[in-house]
Amino acid sequence: MKQAFFQLPAEKREKIARACLGEFGAHDFDKVALDRIVEAAGISKGGLYEYIHSKKELYLFAVELSYTRLYDYLHQSLERRGGGAAGLPADLLERFALVSRAAIDFYVEHPEMIGIIARSSRIDDPSLAGSVRQIFDAHFASIFDSAAAGGLAYPKEKLVELMKWILVKTRNDFLRELSTGADTPTVVSRYIAEWDFLLEVLRGGIYSSA
User: Fold this and answer.
1) pLDDT of res. 167
2) pLDDT tens digits for 124-183?
3) In contact, 136 and 193? CB cutoff 8 Å
4) pTM
5) In CATH, what number does 57-205 get?
6) Buried-most residue among 25, 34, 37, 126 (CB within 10 A)?
7) Which residues lie closer than 8 Å to 201 by C-beta, 6 or more apart?
């Protein structure tokens, strides 16, 4: 984003951000219309280009904003429920379990941001997909890289990649079902039941017996 965007009054910046989140959350990247964004933001298309260099830049801004708000929420939730160094439980699986529960509340409360995050897995442009992956990896690492590695039966980095895959899959399954118009409490209950099963399996398999 151009410096001019960050020099805007906070209220106008947030209005533009909300317009971007709404559009990118509702449409895949190639179906996004900047005309709808400027209409929702109450600015002209020329005005929008005073703040951005390209549609790709605007998209990455929306992705970064979505992940930042999600992971800020997760960190706050972990600090409230957890403990230990920096407010986070040391155990890798305990962090994973807490994240799986905390994330569901954010998913329900912020469908536009989670829509952006879920749609980002379908980006065809390799360069853009790589930038999205870097954003995700950096935020994911902010929670899981400092977890303890002791007592694990497998290399921690491989377990973290497995957990990353599980989190993405269950999130996308949840959003897919929710988008059908299914009852939200029912979808949440199914999500929690799936996580209870997954956590039981992981607890029985990732720790060393030595």
Assistant:
1) 86
2) 899 999 999 999 999 999 888 888 888 888 899 998 899 888 888 888 888 888 878 888
3) no
4) 0.86
5) 1.10.357
6) 37
7) none
Question: Other C-beta atoms within 10 Å of 83: how many?
Answer: 12
The burial of 173, by beta-carbon neighbours within 10 Å (0-12 exposed, 13-18 middle, 19 or more buried), is given as middle
Render pLDDT for 18-49 as a digit per residue (tens, 0 to 9). Answer: 999 999 999 999 999 999 999 999 999 888 89
Tokens matching residue 168: 């993405």
Tokens of 166: 């599980």
Angle at 201 between CA 199 and CA 206, to 5 degrees: 90
Name the residue among 4, 11, 1 with its Cα closest to residue 65. Answer: 1
Domain ranges of the chain: 57-205
For residue 152, which phi and psi values (nearest 5 degrees)? -90, 145
